[in-house]
Amino acid sequence: MNSHMRNSCKDIFRLGDELHLIFPWLVESVFGSLDGVIAGWNLRFLHSRSNEYNIVMDFLNPRYGPMMKLVYKLQAEEYKYEIPINYLPGPVKACIQEGVLPDCPLFHNKLQFPLSGLLTLNIAFNPFEFFMFNFAYCLITPKVRLSLLSHSTDSAYFVLVDTYLKYFLPTEGSVPPSPFSDSRGSVSAPSPRSSSVSFASYGIHSPSLLKHHIFHQPSVNADPAAQEIWRSETLLQMFVEIWLHHYSLEMYQKLQSPQVKEPFSPTEEHVLVVRLLVKHLHAFSNSLKPEQLSSSPSAHSHTHTSPLEEFKRSVPRFVQQKLYLFLQHCFGHWPLDASFRAVLETWLSYIQPWRYTGEKANPQPDQNRTVPEKWESFVHENLLMYTKLFQVFLNRAVRTDLVNAKNALMVFRVAKVFAQPNLAEMIQKGEQLFLEPEHVLHHRQPRGYLTPGQGGSYLSSRQRVVTDMVFKVKSHVYGLEGQDCQYKQMFGTELRGAVSLPLIQIIAQARQTAKRISDHSSEVAANKSFLSWFGLGASDLNNSFPGAEPEETGEYLKKTHEFLDRALENLCQIFKLNQGQLNQLISNLGSLEDDGNSKQLPDCVQSENGLILTDLGRRQIINGLRRFDIHYQGDPELQPIRSYENALLVRLFYRISSLINERFGRHMNALCSRPDFLGRLSRHYLTNLDSTTKLKHSPMSRRMLERSQRPRLSLRPLASYRTILLLLLFYVFGSLLSLGPISSTVLLLAGGFLYGLLMTLFADKLKTH
Prior knowledge:
Elements: H1 2-11, H2 19-31, H3 53-59, H4 66-76, E1 81-84, H5 90-97, E2 111-112, E3 122-125, H6 127-137, H7 156-168, H8 212-216, H9 224-244, H10 249-255, H11 268-285, H12 297-300, H13 307-333, H14 341-350, H15 376-381, H16 383-397, H17 405-418, H18 423-434, H19 438-444, H20 458-481, H21 493-531, H22 555-574, H23 579-587, E4 604-607, E5 610-613, H24 615-622, H25 647-672, H26 677-686, H27 689-696, H28 702-708, H29 721-736, H30 741-761, H31 763-768
Antiparallel strand pairs: 1-3, 2-3, 4-5
Helix pairs in contact: 6-9, 7-11, 9-13, 11-13, 11-14, 13-16, 16-21, 17-22, 18-20, 21-22, 26-30, 29-30
């Protein structure tokens, strides 16, 4: 790849008029084919330790790289390059196939109808759009994983995404001008869209990032600053569409059915890049100067707003819907393991825009940091990002193993963020605005917009502000969830009773389990240190407790206890629980606080197919509070041959016992079915009562249980080396007493019969004791 890249860098501008012909081939050689057959330069797996890393970064640099210079040169000559619609995001492709205009202007007026028919529809992109499409699509193209991979945030692709975001969406200054220019003095912007196009989306916000008139003015009369801003808008639209727009509202509602297959499943690498995008968009939007932050129309009616300023102000609304559906899908479909941390941090990054402020937009710590009042409008206009996703996370948390330190850390992170002073109050106020009745809303709305000097009042002005806020919150919720959505309050009694309080109980249970495992490990460690003087200590403590993982031993358990303690404290702060209420919740656990009760069965119900776990039982097993005893549930005679058994004798005795059971099975069933003493004595010899009792306390079907209770003769114990040794010693002892083999055998059978007789006679008394 090294020589290939060097040749591309040297010869890229020597081809003259043929540049536009080799451009698609060059893009495919760099980013790979859209179907994943051609790997390209493997930017996702190229790291700084590679020799080609610096060459690639220089070649694709947005400021001085040869590739971007080629893009600008072709852009000035207004070439077009086609992409099959099959590679467009699912909702966009569905809109085009149904003859509906996609909500994103990026795909407007670009559909190409081939002569062969409608089966191979294409989208015609300009060179810059074509380049950015392939660059963005490179992230989601299925590729063969390489054997040696470092962290994905160290890859050339991740660094390039960060570089492009900083270059085209600068937090300081303006977007640098392009190096090539056309006859009008600037790289030509895309062709103007038709003014008759409707930009209706699922919400009330226009998908256009700039003001409406900027999109529809001919580029020859446009402001030069507006001509340059289209590259930034195109980059953001392309990233959002390719990385996030895989789920529409209708598609997501269909995905709730288990019969519907997922159209797209993001990877952890994908989510990490999305988080990078979210963090930079916050920094980009927050880079507005204080005098530019006001979003009211009156504040800008008499002042000139530059396209870049308007762009920064519109970014959060443009990303909101697609990111919400993307995160909601991840929350509902991501595995219940530690890899969910990438999704979690992406969500927490979006709902905390105040962390990405300042001159360098460095993230600020969220601990003990009061959320400023100026962010109240952001919280209200993104209410579902806080309330709905918080509820979905709680539902995940109650099904997660919180004894694991990594899972406990995620619960702590969420509780810590939502416990920030002033945030819960903002969310609660947003919920109150959404639940404002419609008739009250109309009653409050003033008839006119008179100022106090014209006969109006300051109260009417305040009512108008409240009415606008109610309208924004309702539009946000209905836009993301649909007009028929059933909103559940984050601080309502339903959520508190169904999820929040059980989660607090589960956290308390997990703390107790972690403490029990930690104490057991400490005891084993103490025993090991004592026995090590005699060379009898255990060599590995990781397996000292049943079911313990490496993350659940030693220091990890201390971290678990710390994370859960602080999470419990923050959750009580969020839901306004005092220490007395917390102690009452923990005391309601009852017998679960007793270590001895860990031997009880998990909560379950009896059915025709055996025991079925309830939701509570599943949580008890996940958090190690209760468990089923593991028993072999198949035919006892067909168990694998143990190391302490003679394989030849096991097979021989199985054939003998099978013949006897097959021939006399009916007689044994009839004998064991008798209610008298003879029936009890037969059941003692021909059934295993202890094993049957254990199997009743395991998740086993009724058919399997009945099969295990059938009377049968089992000679397999005679194949045990221990039994053989005991019999040998018995016969040797009999020979010492001058007893022959026959006499010893009769004595042995008589002793066995007498033992069974006594056990049958005194069985009831033994059970009572």
